[in-house]
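Take our chain:
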Amino acid sequence: MEITPSIDDDTLNRLQDLVVNNPELEKLESLLSRFNIFEALGAVHQEIRHSEFLAYLLSPRQNHGLSDVFVKRFLQETITQAEFPQPITPIDLDIWDLDDVEIRLEWFSIDILIIDRLHQLAVIVENKIDSGEHGDQLKRYRQIVNQHYPGFNIISIFLTPDGEDPSDPKYIKISYDLICRIIEDIVQSRETTLGRDVLVFMNHYAEMLRRHIVGESEIEKLCQQIYRRHKSALDLIYEYRPDQQAAIKDYLCELIKSTPQMDLDYATKSYIYFTPTKWDSHALRVSPKWTPTKRILLFVFLNEPSALKLHLIIGPGPDEIRQKIFKVVSEHEPPFSRAFKALGKSTSTVYKYNLLTQNNYQEKTMEELQEEIKHKWDDFVNHELPKMNDVLLGEIERLGL
């Protein structure tokens, strides 16, 4: 690495101390570079993916070879953690045969529902990863299960990364640390009897939980140790870190400027507005509450930290003009695509095109992101935009816009 002449000796020593002969940093890099199936699939923060894998393990009918081992351990450990009496005991579960339980996903919006008809037991599992509760959903789920399974004993579980308190006191709170420990214990005790593929998946899931979901993971502890020891150097690196969002904004602006008959209207880091010059009309510059040019019809790049989208928006302005444009695009789907059937009071999105997703940001370098943006941009300019021109240019002239 080339060091600029102006760097002082103390700063240089701090940076060198961080990168040279640092076994903690090497171990952290090794852990982060290890392949993980769930990370590769982008499932770390997708609640439904967690629910699907847990439902797979909970179901004795699946091909994992666990029979009812996981569902028994899960319910026994959960009941043990309950702070109030439950309708069954861990001993009941140990005696019972649970091979015929039914596992349902998203039944009446319940994340996971376990039904044991033989023992008249229903178990609600509400799973939260990065989201919170919505209204009185927990209470409502209990009412729904009561209506459909009258006379059944109901156990309600609230599963979160840290074991948060549920709004409904009838729910047992558990954390993903419990899930992690159950999986790790089963893997260790049944390593010789379970299939290799199942063991790999269970190990990868537990490892992913330790890395990203469960507190006090090995990675978290290493990060804390490294930060305490090299705080000043890391703070300096953070201060001068590349701003990917700003870099993408600059690239988009240059892309628009370098494209013939395309006019950059207004740009911030998060919103980059532009329009084809063929669409520019004095009659359409009537939006006093939007961009400085007052254009009422604009494309905009929504440049988010982990997503890049292209929208065409009818902005605020005189209702007569907005209604005329909305009527035209409503009669031509595709190429346009309305977000809503009625015109919005302030803005209305009438076209959407996703350029980058969260997976792109996780997997690609900045150069690769730019290549992907350029590929999607060329597709838009050469295929999508001409279809819109065919519709709008004549209509703009016909409608006196």
